[in-house]
Amino acid sequence: MLEDYIEAKRLGDWAYRRALLFGNYPYLPALDDMLKPENVQGENPIGTLEIPLSDIVGTKSPGRQQAFAMNFMPILGQKTEFATKWSALYDSAVKDGIRDPILVYEYLKKFYVQEGNKRVSVMKYNGAVSIPASVIRVMPVRTEDEQNRLYYEFVDFFRCARIYRISFSECGSYEKLTELLGKKPGEIWSEELSRDVKAAYDRFSELYLARGGGKLSITVGDAFLTYLNIYGLSGILDLSGPEIRLNLDRLWREYLKSAGEITLIETPDELKRSADLRSLFSRERREELRIAFLYERRVENSSWAYGHELGRLYVEEKFGPAIRSSRYEDCDTDEKTAAAIDKAVGEGCGLIFTTGGMMIEESLKAAIRYPSVRFMNCSVNQTHNSIRSYYGRMYEAKFLMGALAASISEGQEIGYIERCPLYGTMANINAFAIGAQLVNPWVRICLRWSGLKKEDWREVFRERRITTVSGPEYARPGGNPREFGLYVSMDGDVLSNVAAPVFDWGKYYEIIIRSVLEGSYGENRLAKSHQALNYWFGMSEKVIDIILSGELKYPSRKLIRFLRRELLSDRLSPFEGELHSQEKKIRGEEAGRMSPEEIVDMRWLNENVMGSIPPLSEFTEASQELIRRGGFLS
Q: Which of 10, 429, 462, 557 is such that its CA lies 20 to 30 A from the CA of 92?
């Protein structure tokens, strides 16, 4: 009907004028005008399938593109042959639908029409969701750009699932979705699973957008993934609309968070200053506060768990009858962690500390299930709004240990062992390297990763005759009990432990528990920004320090006492002023200090570090899982 063409043209004219008003190109873009031959590595026909109309954004080549506005609505006059053909196609589509597939080229998940522009226009006008299309994929040249890597992750995902609809904003999300659905990377999905996921996504998308999700900074796919992580696929397919909407309400705080935006709280005073005055007057001293501590291993065979257990015993003595705590050990799987949390909540615990980064997912799920319980996970740079994290500014201790290592090392190379790159890891490495550089400008730090599939760092150190080594903060279960902290080694044998960083978890837990009892933990102005709250205390809060060997010589002791005093007085910071990475000058001499967020998210290595950040695939499965849950490598 010509009346429908007139209405479609009105929509096209509006889009055309709006584009001109804002200085934008008013017609459909042509893919051939956008691509340069050197940016393309080939074309792959992928068959006929239903594609989302919302992702059809232009034409393959110039020509008919100027018959449409940028929203695919027509703009040619109603007396033209084009208008007559559009109207006839509209009448046919209303009566019989669109049967013949259009031909499109897909580039970076967007579609450009080679044949079937009018069919796309008619279907968009009719409000259709998808259209059958024969698709040819244009493959971009691989780069390290994040969007390029995300696209290639989609290509791998599509090869298995044959689903176009789901888009993410962060690398690793397609693999996470695959894992949540019980499939392995590279495993082909059944038609039934693909159909169920498409149906679940479409249903979720409708309810999420109706709730206002379109106004948020995350994609529908991001929100869908978070929902699946908490409620599973059955939490959409087997629930009614009102039940799904209720679950969305429970998750909304997670969706409101600004992607990647985190508030790092460096002193207890920041919490007090930002607290709501009403919460300060509603103290919780009237009732005993029940607290649970969850450990991945048993206290008697884990230095990490033992350190937290000492902290638990300290606060029990410190607060007396105001609190009662309990510990839950062997929480080394998701199932055990979830069971321990449920038991702790059943026993009346209102504050739960999960002391390992691998517990983050179950902590989040529990926080959604039990909104009245406070959850804190021992990690840093977590983006979840429903829970908080806590960790120490370990880079301060590493800076001191780097200076100490350079003062005792006989050679010009010092070994540094790290398991895998997590948030804060690069700051630790660089602070150590900068500290060593202050004492010896020619010293080099030989960085090795113990979490790689193929790595013999001891052999590397032997070949390079490296005897001074910075190992992990704690001795690893089943490993050499003396390979931790800063130590001197010869032919693989540890001769002496020189220094080690130490956490005083008791002091840390005292600060947090006191904030709960005094009312400064609760809803504060920081939390209302919808940014995740991460506690990041350090030496000035007395939650972290280093211990020195009694055999250390006097000049080295004096050096560390001086540097430590300067750190505590805030007159010294390793990340202030001029800084150089392996590739370039990061900051000039006149630059101030790096912000806490810049430090914890550091992704470069100092100029005197020998080593690199390996790709995820080179790490062991256990290390990859740790990175996926709490790290930054992608």
A: 10
**Complete domains list, the chain, with CATH:** 1-141 (3.90.1530.10), 262-392+506-540 (3.40.50.2300)
Encoded amino acid at 576, one letter: E
Question: ∠ CA(476), CA(482), CA(488), 5° rounding?
Answer: 130
Q: How confident is the model at residue 362 (pLDDT cuts 50, 70, 90)?
A: very high
What is the number of other CB atoms lying within 10 angstroms of the CB of residue 301? 11
Lowest mean pLDDT among 290-294, 380-384, 600-604: 380-384
Question: H or E segment at 184?
Answer: none
Distance (Å, whole) CA 16 – CA 55:
19
Contact between 256 and 217 under an 8 Å Cβ cutoff? The reply is: no
> Mean pLDDT across the stretch 502-526?
84
- Closest of 291, 290, 296 to residue 359, by C-alpha: 296
CA 287 remoteness from chain centre: 37
Position 529 pLDDT exceeds 60: no
Instruction: Report pLDDT digits (tens) over 555-614.
Output: 999 999 999 999 999 999 999 999 999 999 999 988 889 999 899 989 999 999 999 999
Angle at 577 between CA 571 and CA 578, to 5 degrees: 145
Quick one: pLDDT at residue 57? 94
Distances in Å between the Cα of 179 and the Cα atoms of 87, 176, 182, 225, 429 are: 47, 5, 5, 11, 32
Closest among 395, 361, 409, 345 to 593, alpha carbons compared: 395
- pLDDT confidence of residue 266: 87
Burial code of 39-62, b = ≥16 C-beta within 10 A, e = fewer?
Answer: eeeeeeebeeeebbbeebbbbbee
Instruction: Compute the distance between CA of residue 541 and CA of residue 594 in angstroms, rounded to an integer.
Output: 20
- Are 227 and 204 in contact, with CB atoms under 8 Å apart? yes
pLDDT, residue 326, reads 97
C-alpha to C-alpha distance for 108 and 594, rounded to whole angstroms: 35
- Report the distance separating Cα 425 and Cα 416, nearest Å: 12
pLDDT reading at 260 higher than 60? no
**Whole-number average pLDDT of the chain:** 90
Q: Among candidates 473, 416, 492, 491, which has minimal Cα distance to 448?
A: 416
What is the rounded CA–CA span in Å between residue 479 and residue 477? 6
CA torsion 471-472-474-475 (nearest 10°) is: -60
Relative to beta strand 130-140, strand 102-107 is parallel
- From the centroid of its chain, how far is CA 158? 22
Are 630 and 411 contacting, i.e. CB atoms less than 8 angstroms apart? no
Give the whole-angstrom CA distance, residue 146 versus residue 152: 10
> In whole angstroms, what is the distance from residue 402 CA to residue 419 CA?
18
Name the amino acid, one letter, at 611: G
Q: Which residues of 248-270 are buried (b: 16+ CB within 10 A; e: fewer)?
A: beebbbbbebeeeebbbbeebeb
> What pTM was computed for the model?
0.79
433-485 residue pLDDT tens: 999 999 999 999 999 999 999 888 999 999 999 999 999 887 766 667 778 89
Give the pLDDT of residue 477: 65
